[in-house]
Amino acid sequence: MSVDMNSQASDSNEDDFGPNSEEEEEEEVGEEEDQGDIADYYEGVASDVEQQGADAFDPEEYQFTCLSYRESQKVLSEDVNRVASTLKVSPAVAKLVLVHFQWRVSVILERYKSSSSQLLCEAQVQPSTCSSRLHVSTHSFQCGVCLQLVRKEALLALPCQHSFCKACWEQHCTVLVKDGVGVGISCMAQDCSLQMPEDFVLPLLHGDELKDKYRRYLFRDYVESHFQLQLCPGADCPMVIQVQEPRARRVQCSRCGEVFCFMCRQMYHAPTDCGTIRKWLTKCADDSETANYISAHTKDCPKCNICIEKNGGCNHMQCSKCKHDFCWMCLGDWKTHGSEYYECSRYKENPDIVNQSQQAQAREALKKYLFYFERWENHSKSLQLEAQTYQRIQEKIQERVMNNLGTWIDWQYLQNAAKLLAKCRYTLQYTYPYAYYMESGPRKKLFEYQQAQLEAEIENLSWKVERADSYERGDLENQMHIAEQRRRTLLKDFHDT
């Protein structure tokens, strides 16, 4: 699993942001999914575990829409036209204002009523009145970058009136666009952050290829700044997910099938929130736990400084390299003090001794981490094994259908049981980072109680799925119902709380 939590659209999908993108989408949507893949375990199992009354509530239910490139452009254009007409600015300037306020049109219109000039200054599309007047009074025909004297008509300036020659503007914009900048190209003047609208930048770019690249970067930045939109993180996929209320919920692209969290665009991670799962994955990936282990289990020889790990109960240590005898507790020469810890008179006197309580804390921290990490890893491996079980069930159903022992519909419950098992175990896996960072208290005790219940029912379901031929259909479906109920209860009480 990737650790990077801020992946963005790359140049690899540039060709999808064009007039032919929808035709390509229609071709790919019709492709069949791999029957051996269990990544779609959220699909097709609801009918087998549907509950009545309050239990029917699904804490993961989330409404979203998958938009093509043209549909996304239409959504953006509607907001741009509305803001441009209200603020009486060009569409290019309106886009910069929208980006600054994350495309919250109602906020922009409300702010505009109170102070239109302040709104434009805050969005960095209009300079303050005083700074503009100050520069006009010192206006000259010299470019502020190359310091060349040029004709007046060869100078270009933003509303801040910082004038530079066209050649310098062209070089400035070209370099930034080649570096992947869309929105965010600002005035070249020092300490001036006035933003350059796209209708100012485009004429300065040479060649259709560079202009197309700039438009793609703009589209990427417009979508990523929109509080209700997210680019699909799937490889070479131009689709955009639209929601009404942005939350850390599961969404799935209708084109490439990518499943991800709407807020962070990483693998769905309920009940753990985006910030916590980012910390956990970083912790699992870096070398911090190696350092913790060394701190908790090793010390340096006081004579030759070689790292030594204690592998016995005796505090009398002998360095394997220099043969120096010393006390594990105080690092003092073993010849000058007793064999028991309470006789170690130098322990409190030596200021260079590593504090014992710190060692104990490091060991406890490592023990806690390993407790949750081992369970996290175990369920991750179990998911891989259950994908193989799902494949075997698919093959078994196919064999029975071919032998006229029923239809696909008759044996569909076996497939759904395997899907639900993976769905529940996936949720269980992500409960361990949640528990690791939880503070001790009654709420953590409740969480761990529900976590243990869910784990027990998952193991029961796993046992029955692997031995489905030994159980009646009703028994298996009842176990599915119980496991899904435990999962939903935990998510209802702890997801997004």
Explain what you see:
With 497 residues, the protein is mainly alpha-helical. Among the domains are: 154 residues, 2-Layer Sandwich (Herpes Virus-1), CATH 3.30.40; 54 residues, no CATH class; 131 residues, Four Helix Bundle (Hemerythrin (Met), subunit A), CATH 1.20.120.1750. It is 50% helix and 7% strand. A hairpin with a 5-residue loop joins β2 and β3. It is flat and about 85 Å long.
Low-confidence stretches: 1-15, 19-36, 130-139, 346-354
Oligomer: single chain
Q: Count the strands?
A: 11
Strand composition percent: 5-15%
Query: Can you write the helix and strand succession as a string?
Result: HHEHHHHHEEHHHEEEEHHEEEEHHHHH
CATH architecture of the domain at 76-229: 2-Layer Sandwich
Name the average pLDDT: 83
Helix content: 40-55%
CATH homologous superfamily heading of the domain at 76-229: Zinc/RING finger domain, C3HC4 (zinc finger)
